[in-house]
Amino acid sequence: MAITPSGEGATTPQWTSRFAFLMAAIGSAVGLGNLWRFPFMTGQYGGSAFVIVYLICVVLVAYPIMMSELALGRHKGLSAIESISELAKDAGKSKNWGVVGIIGVICSGLVLSTYSPVAGQVMAYATMSYMGEFAGRAASEAATVAPLYNGALPAILWHTLFMVMTIAIVAQGLHGGIERIVTILMPIFFFLLAGVAIYALVTGAGAKAVDYLFTPRFDEITTSSVLAALGQAFFSLSLGSAIMITYGSFLSREESIPANAAVIAGSDTLVAIIAGLMIFPVVFAFGLDPAAGMGLIFNALPAVFSGMPAGSFIGGTFFVLAFVAAITSAISLLIVPAVALENYTSLSKTASAIVVGIIVWAVGALSILVKDTGGWLDFFSGSVLLPLGGLLVAILAGWVAPSAAMRAELPHASDRMFAFWRFVVRYPAPLAVGVILILGLDDKFGWGVNAWINSLTG
Ligand code: PHE
User: Is 312 in the pocket of ligand 1 (CB under 6 A)?
Assistant: First the structure.
């Protein structure tokens, strides 16, 4: 069965159950963004100051945009590009709005090309932890002693392995591939996550971590922490990349979008918080700097775990957790461009997944080989395309789509809630996302906007 209709009479497959949909959507949202990006950003922006702003961003901006993506996808039930261009056409607007779907397709592919090398590194580190490679090492040594991950060749091999697995799952389609994998892996993920977090809280500096993450210190909130939090909320909830539009297109009309989106956003946020409760007790117990940045997980944690009871095993399990989170996100990133290719060519579902997968693999390999490519890809996909996609989704749902069409997709919302949602996607959400977009660009190109804001806020 095709993943999307290609031509007359074809039907879009639907999720077999609510559980399958939720596991796939939570699987997409919960990823390296929660286990790796959220803790290091929290550390960089001062702990609770970041966490509080993040929670507000999720509830007020990201959650309404997630509802919009699911509703836009379900409305026509076609691939992301077609769903949007048909909706715009019905509303008497230009079919060119389909460009939102095209941005999503490109963005998903680019995010995956930078995501897969990191996921490959996670696999390498899981293997090395179980092998006891990090036992007795200092944190500063871990990166240099990683024998399975030294040099470009091993990095490319691990990246290749990760992409082959991702392609193999997506090539088997919605039911035989994605649903089958996520309904097994996600429950295992939650079980392991709870286990490692309890271990870390009990054996590490739990009380200090809880204080660091939750005691409000409002005076430490800065404009840059607000921006970082909003960008992180988008990344973590897989928004702006047409993924939720695509997953929404497989969703039955009986399902409540506000309720399901709340479960997805709530679970994703809970996992991010638990990841903090897993990593910071260990960081504080060993006197590491929480602001150490991205290296926190790859350099510091393996060495640190190895100094704890059963550390090689726990450290390995931590990286297995991260791997499970990564692969269930990667399949959602691959399915968006794969569906588009299948839709616009005569290629089969399997061939489409393979062709797109190879392109993504090649870009990923290039980013490993050519210095700075990865940083640029990250910037272009994360700071330009994701917010741009999110901004256009809000405009589509709030301004382009007729209110009645959106109301029909959100029948479970009360009148009040619908009015509130519509207000958010018309005004504050596009404004907030537009601001991140401009400030993100400014950060790169130095137009002086950030400096100007800082001069205002003193
Ligand atoms: N949400 C995933 C994570 O948190 C990554 C992702 C980003 C997936 C953007 C899809 C789109 O790791």
Answer: no
Please answer whether residues 166 and 4 qualify as being in contact, where contact means their C-beta atoms are separated by less than 8 angstroms: no
Which pLDDT score, from 0 to 100, does residue 6 have? 38
In terms of average pLDDT, the best of 281-285, 378-382, 392-396, 443-447 is 392-396
Tell me the three state secondary structure of residue 449: helix
pLDDT tens-place string over residues 77-104: 888 999 999 999 999 999 999 999 999 9
Q: What is the pLDDT of residues 333-353, one digit of tens each?
A: 999 999 999 988 999 999 999
The token duo for 125 is: 């580190």
Ligand 1 pocket, mutate which of 103, 108, 238 (most atoms under 8 A from CB): 238
- The protein residue whose alpha carbon is closest to atom 9 in ligand 1 is 238
The response to whether residue 377 sits with its C-beta less than 6 Å from ligand 1 reads: no
Question: Using an 8 Å Cβ cutoff, are 189 and 325 in contact?
Answer: yes
What is the C-alpha separation between 277 and 185, in angstroms, rounded? 22
Tell me, using a 6 A CB cutoff, whether residue 32 lines ligand 1: yes
Mean pLDDT of the chain: 89
Contact 123, 161 (CB under 8 A): yes
Distance 336 CA to ligand 1 centre (A): 13
**d(C-alpha 120, C-alpha 124), whole Å:** 6
**Whose CA is closest to atom 8 on ligand 1?**
238
Nearest CA-CA partner of 50 in 257, 275, 277, 214: 214
Neighbouring residues of 181: CB distance < 8 A, sequence distance ≥ 6: 169, 327, 328, 331
Q: What residue type is 365 in one-letter code?
A: A
Residue from 329, 336, 385 whose mutation best tests the ligand 1 pocket (most atoms within 8 A of CB): 329
For 266-285, the DSSP string reads HHHHHHHHHHHHHHHHHHHH
**387 CA distance to ligand 1 centroid (A)?**
13
Angle at 271 between CA 220 and CA 434, to 5 degrees: 55
Q: Would the CB of 329 count as within 6 Å of ligand 1?
A: yes
